[in-house]
Fold this sequence. Notes:
Arc Repressor Mutant, subunit A; globular
Amino acid sequence: MVVNFYFQLYLPYNFIRIGIKHSAVAYLYLGSCRCHVRCFPFNKENLLIRYNENFLTKRGLLILSIARCMAPKIKDSESKIIFMRHFPKPNQLKIFQTILEHSSFRAAAKALYQTQPALTQSMNELEKMLGTPLLIRSPRGVALTEAGKLFEPRAQLILKELERAVSEVRKFNTLSWGTIEMGSSSLPFLTMLPSAIQRFQTRFPHVNVNLTEGHLSALLPALRMGKLDFIIGETSPESALSSEFIKEPFFTAPFCILARRRHPLAQCTSLSQLNGAKWYLPTAKIGYYNQLDKWLFPSGQQPANMIVRGDAAIMAQQMVLHADFLTVAAKEVMQVPYLGRLFCMVPIKEPLPDAHFSFIYSQHSPLTQVARRMIDKLRWECNNYPWQSESESHSPLVKEGG
C-alpha cells in the first residue's frame, strides 16, 4: 500500500499529500486558523497538507483522519516526493569536509573563521539528521565511521557540483571565464594538446586550464570524485567502462615496441626473440594496457623480476635510455625530434593492436560549457594535426569544426 505521509524527523512540521479531487473536504477547514493544519496545492493533481502534531485541535485531527483515508488512493507514481528539509545544508557539508581535511575541529574552525562550538553544533545537527555518527573523535584526531566513509565521497561530489553550478550561473552571459580540470595520457601532450590549449586560451584568455598526466586507471578515481571535468585515455573494446561514465571516441593510434638505439635487441623481428628482455610497462589495469601482458607474453612465462611497472612517461624514457629496458608506446612518439634521435622501433612482425583514445566524463556530472568548448577545440586540432603515422592506421574518429 502506498504511504503518503511524510513525517519530518527533528522538525516540528509533518506533511500529508492527498488527491486534488478530495481537496474540497480539506478546504472546508481553511478558514479556521487555530487548527494548526494548512492545505495548499502541490501540483495539478495533488494537495499538500502541513500540520504541527504538537498543537492539533479536534478540528485538525478530523482533517488528518480524512486525509489518512484518502491518501492510499493516490497512485505510486504520484506519491514520490522528497522535501528539501530532509537534506543537509551546504555549509554542513563544507564543515564536514573541512574537518576531515584538517583532522581536527579546532583547525577546521580556524580555517573557516568560526568557533569550535559552532562547528560541533553543526556536525551534531548533521549526524542527528542522518541518524548515525559520521566522525569518531579522539585525542589523536578525527576519523570516519563506516557510515562516514559512505557519506564522504558523495558529500565531496555534491560540493564540487554546487561550485560548478554557481560558477556557470555567474558566467551565464559569457564563456570567457571558468576553469577546466583535464586529465590525459602522454600521447596528446606530445601531439595536438599544446597547440589546442594555445588556441583555446587565445579565444578564452580568462579560462584557467589545469592538466593532469596519467593512465586511465589512475585518472578515473579523480573523475569519479569530481576533481576532473574529463579525461583522454586509451580504451579497448575488451575493457568496458562502468556505466557511470560516458565515452566519446576521439582517435586511434598504432603502437609499437621502443628501445634505445644500439640496444642489443633493437633489430629483433619477432616477439619470441625478445624472451629475457627487461620491460618497463604501465601499471594500468583498465583499457588498452589491460591486455598488454597477453599480447607481449603469449606463453605467460615472462619472469616477474624482468618487468618494472610505473605510469610516469619520463621514467619510461630514463629506463629505456639508461637501463636497456624495452617499452610500449605510440609510433607517433618517434616524430618528437628529441625522442626520435634517442629511440628506435623494434621491427617485430607481430603488430600490436591499435589504441583507441576517447574522451571520458561522468554520467552524473554534466560537462561545463568551457569544458565542452575545449573538447571541440581538441577535435579540431586532432583533425588538422600532421600525423606522420596516418598512412598506417591513425585516424581521427570524429571530425568537427573548431
